[in-house]
Amino acid sequence: MEYETVIGLEVHVHLKTKTKAFCGCSTEFGQEPNTQTCPVCLGMPGSLPVLNKVALEYAFKVALALNCSVQEFTKFDRKNYFYPDLPKNYQISQYDLPLAREGFLDVQTSDADKHIGILRVHLEEDAGKLVHKDDVTLVDFNRAGIPLLEIVSKPQIYSPEEAYAYLLALKSVIGYLGVSDCDMEKGSLRCDANISLRKRGVEELGVKAEIKNLNSFKAVKDALSFEAVRQEGLLREGSPVVQETRLWDAREGKTISMRSKEEAKDYRYFPEPDLPPFLIKKETIEAIRQSIPELPREKCSRFMKEYGLPQYDAQILTVSRATAEYAEECLRQSQGVNKKIISNWLIGPVSAGANNRNCGIADLGLSAALLIELVQAVETQQISHLTGKSVLEEMLRTSKSSGLIIKEKNLGQVSDTDSLKDEVEAVIKDNQKSVNDFISGKENALMFLVGQVMKRTKGKANPKVVQDTLRRRLTDA
């Protein structure tokens, strides 16, 4: 505990616009390489960029949702560097006058709420993509010019776990805004992590390393955990920590030195001569602010207050906008049914069904009305909870209602004690040891006997009625 870990994250988000940041080329993912290019995004002589208005509006929406101070005067700059996937040999970005500064994101960690500052939010264009194949490297410029939003946190993250929680919260907010699909597999959301160590009680930051090639939130957490241990080992043995860029090797589970860390001066920033500075009207900013929907934390708080859900349930149900809207429709329609029970079904069996199909619960095609009908069948003891889960799976497979499935398969729960009498007597006869255990005071033995009756009736017996019947029968005996 001699050293404190300090982390800052740079998150890059593809904005979900139809065309690129400064030209009219399509941004559709997965097309044939180099089929979505033009003289502008390829940097041909004489071509001139024109800013995508929707991309600018999306960028402002994210900045406002992150509580940033939006700048009424902003400009673009050229960031000069030379790399095979950068056709212009420069990137249109923002340097000293980004579109937003000084925001924050409140994050729920395992310990408590954490207030993490946002240093800046700026808009830029993405580079192309290198494809390494056999002994050659190919270049695909389809991605070059796609609007990219960079969100830079302050160095106020003090553990890999906090970094993970921050990324989850940030992705949730962006997803609610509908400005990006945040699909890391497509490269729509990428993260670079800066990490340094310092002695506890010291304000000055240590020498940092930047980690790239982080293609999942788990990779961010694992890479930061490894790097913290590596840097602490160097400091303890008296060796210097070098400011550098490192790559995360997931297969080896370690970071690898890539190159010395660049500084701003290395990029020779200067104002983009082909784009004028932009003056943003206050009315425009306010109109964008009004378009921001209820965000995850606010919706979570409302679910707790309005529907009486515990915080854990509310957080899970509001992590994505689509899930939250579906859950709320179910909660609103569940008249006469405890909201916690609805939540249990959504978080449990319904989510399991969605996971098995690799989709969200809102994409299952299960209407709120049909789910409520199923839950009511279980709660009124028409069927058991176990049978209810199998009925749900059948509903997802066939799109039939629970009532129809229960009728077709004769799944109605048996609650008549006379109908269960023969099964109860047969179980007592076949399980004398468990009967004697219960009579001698071992309560768990009764539950074993209940299970045997349920097995004989193929789950159709009402377990509460079975338990009461067995208890009376054995107590009287």
How many DSSP E strands?
A: 16
Walk across the major sheet and give the strand order: 2-6-7-10-1-11-12-13-14
Number of helices: 15
- What share of residues is helical? 40-55%
- The global form is elongated
Roughly what is the average pLDDT, rounded to an integer?
A: 90
Please describe what this structure looks like.
Helices cover 40% and strands 20% of the residues. With 477 residues, it is α+β, with helices and mostly antiparallel strands. The protein folds into 3 domains: 3-288, no CATH class; 296-408, no CATH class; 417-476, Orthogonal Bundle (Arc Repressor Mutant, subunit A), CATH 1.10.10.410. It has a 9-stranded mixed sheet with strand order 2-6-7-10-1-11-12-13-14. A 3-stranded antiparallel sheet has the order 5-4-15, with no helix packed on it. Strands 3-16 form a two-stranded antiparallel ribbon. It is elongated and about 95 Å long. The chain starts with a strand and ends with a helix.
Sum this structure up briefly.
This protein has 477 residues and is an alpha+beta fold. The protein has helices spanning 53-65, 160-177, 217-236, 282-290, 296-307, 311-317, 321-333, 339-356, 368-379, 385-398, 402-408, 417-430, 432-439, 444-456, 463-476; strands at 3-14, 69-70, 73-74, 77-80, 90-93, 100-108, 113-125, 129-133, 136-140, 147-153, 189-199, 209-214, 244-249, 254-260, 270-271, 278-279.
Question: How are the SSEs ordered, and which strands pair?
Answer:
Elements: E1 3-14, H1 53-65, E2 69-70, E3 73-74, E4 77-80, E5 90-93, E6 100-108, E7 113-125, E8 129-133, E9 136-140, E10 147-153, H2 160-177, E11 189-199, E12 209-214, H3 217-236, E13 244-249, E14 254-260, E15 270-271, E16 278-279, H4 282-290, H5 296-307, H6 311-317, H7 321-333, H8 339-356, H9 368-379, H10 385-398, H11 402-408, H12 417-430, H13 432-439, H14 444-456, H15 463-476
Parallel strand pairs: 12-13
Antiparallel strand pairs: 1-10, 1-11, 2-6, 3-16, 4-5, 4-15, 6-7, 7-10, 8-9, 11-12, 13-14
